[in-house]
Amino acid sequence: KLHSDLDKGVGTVKYTLSGDGAGTVFTIDETTGDIHAIRSLDREEKPFYTLRAQAVDVDTKKPLEPESEFIIKVQDINDNEPKFLDGPYVASVPEMSPVGAYVLQVKATDADDPTYGNSARVVYSILQGQPYFSIDPKTGVIRTALPNMDREVKEQYQVLIQAKDMGGQLGGLAGTTTVNITLTDVNDNPPRFPKSIFHLKVPETSHVGSAIGRIRAVDPDFGKNAEIEYNIVPGDGGNLFDITTDEYTQEGVIKLKKPLDFETKKAYTFKVEASNLHLDHRFHSVGPFKDTATVKINVLDMDEPPVFSKPMYTMEVYEDTPVGTIIGAVTAQDLDAGSSSVRYFMDWKNDVDSYFTIDATEGTIATNELLDRENTAQYNFSIIASKVSNPLLTSKVNVIINVLDVNEFPPEISVPYETSVCENAKPGQVIQTITAADKDLSPAGQRFSFKLSSDASSKPNFTVHDYRNNTAGIETRRNGYSRRQQELYFLPVVIEDSSYPVQSSTNTLTIRVCRCDSDGTIQSCNVEAIFLPVGLSTGALIAILLCIVILLVIVVLYVALRRQKKKDTLMTSKEDIRDNVIHYDDEGGGEEDTQAFDIGALRNPKVIEDNKIRRDIKPDTLRFTRHRPPAQDNTDIRDFINQRLKENDVDPSAPPYDSLATYAYEGNGSVAESLSSIDSLTTEADQDYDYLSDWGPRFKILADMFGEESYNPDKVT
């Protein structure tokens, strides 16, 4: 209610209301100033409203008092229940956990005003899930309430949690949520075999490495806690078998390590141990986490193929053995109880097998063709044995036949030797060592002997020295040899082997006579060297060569001296424009060498030399003119030079004259004037030539010409 002191109750005052919710949530009686709420208020939506009120004169509409501001606060009531914003919850706890083990903390939120009354005071309780779990009424922490909860007994638990406001008192609002709790596995159970003895039947024909049976131990645990390792306890038959774990089924797979034979042993017994791979030390007191079972294996008799007495047969036969000769035999037996007869035959794969035959009943192998060791030294083929009672049961064995050598080839020199001997060789000197080779397969201890043939034994040139180790040396018997008399010698050498029958061959060794120095080093074996002049010795040849070299040196020196001399050759011809060209043998000095003749006609007519100084001779006194009066323009000479220049340019037979220096005439009025140094007005008197003495001996003459004497114009002619 609003009231102004100026309001006398006669209706002269009017009350107005403005601000939050004015006209929509709140209204005011303009006469009495009473404020009313025109709709329901929700503190959770807006906890307070700020309004402004004013008293106005009804007649003048003017404020009687300043505008006043006031706040309407919404008082809370318990109209909101607690809510679990994160529910439903999922939690887990290890099995066998002690009482009070932490599981999860839940939280409920109440939208009521926590500062006013108990509307927002929440208390937690369990409606479903006891006696396994408990909850703290104030914090909402869930813990285990029973010890040793076993996952293998019950794994999943659903707990219903209630949150009630007003401190849990009667009349309070409540909210609920569900917590799904799972017991996680721990390794608290050892593996156990469901039975103590396992019986397996295995055929004796089982292959090594194949699986012959499976056994399984049961572990109620889960995941890695249920992983089992199987081992065979050492004992009877344990060395013939092996066991591994199937990682998917956790079964023990028994495999065969060695072949079985029913006729040798019909049954095997051994023990298998199953144990966990991942142990939990907290449960060691429960007992050993392993179990043992007995495995009995009965070997089943099977109809097996024949068995050869050897895994491989090796035989020997001499080459050229007559066809049909028996060289050996193979034997196979049927080890089964019935003991069937065996038949033999060859495994035909290629033409090599046709060299031999086998008796189907006895298993004897005989030659079918003549054998040649030099063609094939070894034969390798297979023999198949089958049972008469069951031809489909066969076995195979490899047979190797080595062909022995018969001495049928004579020995020969290993390499077709061609050796040499020095002209100055001494008697008894070894010039070559030879060896022999035999195509036959030489037996151990075979020797080769070397000797000269009977025809060569009577000649006193060379001899053969047998070293008795399958080598021999060729020795000289003369004191010196002459190429002019005989360049080549042919020495027949007889080589014999020690086999039976003895084989021999005569091999010819070519010996070439060569020229050697005193140390025996070969200098020349060429045929051309034989035809040197008979009367010239080595010293004479050296003297002739020295004379030739001296003459060549003299000629070179003479030519070099001639080039150093200066020659003045002047070409004189009145009809030839080259009559003023000067020829020098030595290197010229450039364009200044043209001072020896008058080239005024080629120069700018405004400049002319008064005195011409020769550059090809050393002047007594150097004088440079400083003033050059202009020459008259001689157009006839210029036209003549241009005409001859064009003729020589188009004439391909005209020789070049490199010493002729010509300069184009630019004509009168040229801004750049002549670019030639001939027209330079700079005199030599303005220059310093002392630097020529620093250029070395090549410029000594120039340094003497321009650096030593002073210029005296009176001495210049």
UniProtKB/TrEMBL annotation:
One of its GO terms (cellular component) is adherens junction. Pfam families: CADH_Y-type_LIR (PF01049), Cadherin (PF00028). It comes from the Eukaryota. CDD domains: Cadherin_repeat. The chain crosses the membrane at residues 530-561. Gene3D superfamilies: Cadherins, TCF3-CBD (Catenin binding domain). Keywords: Calcium, Cell adhesion, Cell membrane, Cleavage on pair of basic residues, Glycoprotein, Membrane, Metal-binding, Phosphoprotein, Repeat, Signal, Transmembrane, Transmembrane helix. It is found in: Cell membrane. One of its GO terms (molecular function) is cadherin binding. It is a single-pass type I membrane protein. This is Cadherin-12. One of its GO terms (biological process) is cell migration. Residues 4-84, 85-193, 194-308, 309-413, 413-531 form the Cadherin domain. The gene is Cdh12. InterPro entries: Cadherin, Cadherin-like_dom, Cadherin-like_sf, Cadherin_CS, Cadherin_Y-type_LIR, Catenin-bd_sf. Cadherins are calcium-dependent cell adhesion proteins. They preferentially interact with themselves in a homophilic manner in connecting cells; cadherins may thus contribute to the sorting of heterogeneous cell types. PROSITE patterns: CADHERIN_1, CADHERIN_2.
